[in-house]
Design a protein that fits this description.
seven-stranded mixed β-sheet; binds magnesium ion; alpha+beta; 16 strands; 9 helices; D-Maltodextrin-Binding Protein, domain 2; binds adenosine-2'-5'-diphosphate
């Protein structure tokens, strides 16, 4: 089955959402950042991006039953004192739609925006089609002025069938060996994949797509690895133990969000280690787009036990201990190092 039409729509939606986010990041004010009950930050851009993607997908596929599993909901925007924020979001979405010009729609109202955001309340599952969206993945990176991604994927009967990753601050050329946040050249990449068709990257400004591949590095001593920028998001002693066991020489490359999957898919590094702290439950929107982008580029994405991620169980991913990503050659060695490190950790407790 072809998902070409869905891919075109997903790319369009992610590009426009990226445009909206770039505008907000440029003139980001402290007052634009709200804090959700789980203490994670959320900005007008998170809401605006979700509203825009949701609205555009519904507009592109008006006759299909629409299901979207997305991170944000309008709860906090409906509280007293949020009217001004809601109006800002509405204006941002309308301005972005108008700047594109290909959608001749009358301006959306604040009600339309709330509705578009709340169309993302689906629970997903193993039947039918579900869009999966993280409107800004890496909000902390976004607020800092660093890396973030707009991550959109499609599940069909529980399988990932397409993924789009817009990375507005990722340099277009390789970041291997460098700091992605301190770069002078062109930034802004769009990764996209359709099942069985490979992964491609183009610039967010619309250059022609290039096919990308993970690296063929077999020797861990020549490999480099990615992990979160935010120390609070993972167990650093575990990732350093794993990399030590593998004999990795290069220091870790710390980047926010699913940009790590994009960078790995084009060969900027070989390994992504993600070991969140105890009690953290992974959500499907934090991995769906990244997972298909890496898999279609020839890589592997599994949990710490080597089992492929299952996106069909609702909005959570029930993974064993952590998520690991690498090329096919390095995976057996990586799994061994992960197993040994987890055993050492368990016996030291
Ligand atoms: N305590 C946490 N541990 C791990 N990941 C978290 C935590 N809190 C939020 N996240 C989510 O993890 C991702 C950030 O990943 P990374 O650490 O790789 O940059 C984001 O999806 C972020 O959500 P959000 O989409 O709200 O930014
Ligand atoms: Mg968040
Ligand atoms: Mg996220
Ligand atoms: Mg998010």
């Amino acid at each position: 089955m072809s998902y070409d039409k869905e891919l075109v729509a997903a790319k369009k939606a992610a590009c426009l959402a990226a445009r909206l986010c770039q505008k907000v990041q440029k003139d980001l004010l402290q007052s634009d950042v709200q804090t959700k009950s789980d203490k994670s930050p959320v900005t007008v851009a998170d809401y605006g991006s979700q509203a825009l993607v949701s609205f555009l997908l519904q507009k592109e596929f008006p006759t299909e039953q629409f299901s979207l599993v997305a991170e944000e909901d309008s709860g906090d925007l409906c509280k007293d004192g949020s009217q001004e924020t809601l109006e800002r979001i509405t204006k941002l979405v309308n301005d972005t739609l108008a700047s594109d010009g290909s959608y001749s729609v009358s301006p959306l109202s604040t009600e339309d925006i709330l509705q578009a955001i709340d169309s993302g309340k689906s629970e997903g599952g193993s039947q039918g089609r579900h869009w999966v969206l993280d409107p800004i993945d890496g909000t902390k990176g976004f607020v800092r002025g660093d890396q973030y991604a707009i991550a959109l994927a499609l599940l069909d009967e529980g399988q990932l069938v397409l993924g789009v990753l817009a990375c507005p601050n990722l340099p277009f050329t390789s970041i291997s060996g460098g700091n992605p946040n301190a770069f002078n050249g062109e930034v802004g990449c769009l990764f996209f994949s359709e099942v069985g068709q490979g992964t491609y990257m183009q610039s967010l400004n619309g250059s022609s797509p290039l096919k990308v591949q993970v690296t063929a590095v077999e020797n861990p001593e020549e490999a480099s690895f990615f992990e979160s920028y935010e120390a609070a998001h993972y167990m650093r002693y575990l990732t350093s133990l794993i990399s030590e066991k593998l004999g990795i020489k290069a220091p870790p490359v710390r980047i926010d969000s699913q940009v790590k999957y994009g960078a790995l898919s084009r060969g900027d590094g070989e390994i992504y280690l993600r070991f969140p702290r105890k009690g953290y439950r992974e959500k499907i929107w934090d991995h769906a787009a990244g997972c298909i982008v890496v898999t279609e580029a020839g890589g592997l994405v599994t949990d710490a036990a080597g089992i492929p991620l299952d996106f069909s169980k609702g909005k959570y991913l029930d993974v064993d201990a952590g998520i690991i990503v690498t090329n096919q050659k390095l995976m057996p060695l990586l799994l061994k190092a992960v197993r040994e490190s987890l055993n050492e950790k368990a016996s030291s407790l």
